[in-house]
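Okay, is this right?
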Amino acid sequence: MFTHILFPTDGSELSDKVAARVMELARVHGGRVTAISVIQPFPFMTLSGDSGIVAPDAEVFEGQMERAARDNVNKVAAAASAAGVPFEGLVALAPSPYQEIVAAAEKHGCDAIVMASHGRKGLNKLFLGSETQKVLAHTELPVLVLR
């Protein structure tokens, strides 16, 4: 059915739970999994001079985010290894995670995307947005959404 699944992960408990299902799907169909964790760039502008304002360091922020993203991908790699599923892990830096997810699926020849959805409602959905909704709107690949 699906031979190459793209699995975006944010390292949440829900992503970890869905990773097990993704591995089972890939194993049953003799497929492989590519996991991606997308880091968004430093969200603040830094001020120069002696303004007295202490701003976070962009390099420190992005370094911490990259380590967290690699940890996310490594958790999925461990699940793939345990299931005997071929695996590739990616970490990307992009202002719009959904665009990077769609581009990675195309670039790596994936034939499906499996995503976890937190199922936010109301104002949380409005303010936080839904990367899953954006992926659904911008790809022609089948997208399986799990909770």
In short: The chain has a mean pLDDT of 88.
